[in-house]
């Protein structure tokens, strides 16, 4: 009788995630987000390697924060973020309204079918309107959803359920956003709609990460009302970093998040620099007013020392740097300049001392408060109340 030799396990299965973490950090720092090597990323094998290779191009500064998470939840959070990026890509880059709505609906249905053990339905055939190579990377991810699905199948049932609810909630939010932008000629009318949009785009992923941390700790997935509220505010604080950075790019595609810019969005015009400056300052002011919710979320999740503490500090510092860079570039307000590599290295000691990590978060929030005080005086008259 011939001895049957089992097939060797793929390298990523044999090597514990904890031993691969440093290499993933280094790969993320080296990633060229302006000129991604799409062919190399697309050819990555197995599917988990594809997840880690595409993540820096889909999540930017959030990628190292995800890599820093505990091993049991890092991959699910990465896959969850990538599914959300696919939905965001449909919303941003599919111009045909009917096809966009269909694409936003199909993705959560696929996850329901996967959890039921059924063959998922085909993704709709849509055309994407890319502006740059970063957009092209997002389109490539949307075309490779079956590879995310293959990783999704490996997760425990509670994680699959949380992830399925995340994608459904975000799909609902994206469809609302698409309908609202279309009905209101590319703009949001005020703070309530802005908050709802930010919850759809990033509040839901923050809530998902908090639920997985709870599952990692004691097997539960429910959050207190206070933690739910903090996750919503933190999602808006984080998403407005993207909004304030991309005001001109969004105007050129006919979208704006401050009603004062409505006429510019209609004309796809980014030439009124003073109006744009004032609106950006108002949005920045709103964002920083929500920053204290970050500590409330950390306290509600019971984050202390450990990898999650390092990840939380890293995320706050990256977001702080986003606001400082945007303020310096577009508002003429100078601030600290810190490299991504420095943020990663200087946040890792929080894994050893939760008290130190919290003190550093406090310092980051204080610097953001100082930035808010330095915003132009007219900000108060444009604030989205």
Structure in words:
This protein has 385 residues and is mainly alpha-helical. It folds into 2 domains: 7-156, no CATH class; 186-385, Farnesyl Diphosphate Synthase. 71% of the residues lie in helices and 0% in strands. The chain contains 20 helices and no strands. Helix 6 runs antiparallel to helix 9, helix 10 (157-183) runs antiparallel to helix 11 (191-218) and helix 12 (225-245) crosses helix 16. The longest helix is centred in the middle third of the chain and has 28 residues, at 191-218. The radius of gyration is 21 Å and the shape is globular. Mean pLDDT is 88; it is low at 1-11.
What is the terminal separation in angstroms? Answer: 78 Å
CATH C-level name of the largest domain: Mainly Alpha
Residue-averaged pLDDT: 88
What is the architecture of the largest domain at the second tier of CATH?
Orthogonal Bundle
| CATH superfamily membership of the largest domain | Farnesyl Diphosphate Synthase
Beta fraction: under 5%
Oligomer: single chain
CATH topology of the largest domain: Farnesyl Diphosphate Synthase
- What structural class do you assign from the helix and strand content? mainly alpha
Number of domains: 2
List keywords for this structure.
385 residues; mainly alpha; Farnesyl Diphosphate Synthase; 2 domains; 20 helices; 0% strand; globular
In short:
It is built from 20 helices and no strands. It has 385 residues and is mainly alpha-helical. The chain folds into 2 domains: 7-156, no CATH class; 186-385, Farnesyl Diphosphate Synthase.
What order do the helices and strands come in, and which of them pair?
Layout: H1 11-14, H2 17-30, H3 38-42, H4 47-59, H5 62-67, H6 71-93, H7 97-115, H8 133-143, H9 145-152, H10 157-183, H11 191-218, H12 225-245, H13 247-252, H14 262-267, H15 273-289, H16 293-301, H17 307-331, H18 340-347, H19 354-373, H20 379-382
Helix pairs in contact: 2-4, 4-6, 4-9, 6-7, 6-8, 6-9, 6-10, 6-11, 7-10, 10-11, 11-12, 12-15, 12-16, 12-17, 15-17, 15-19, 17-18, 17-19
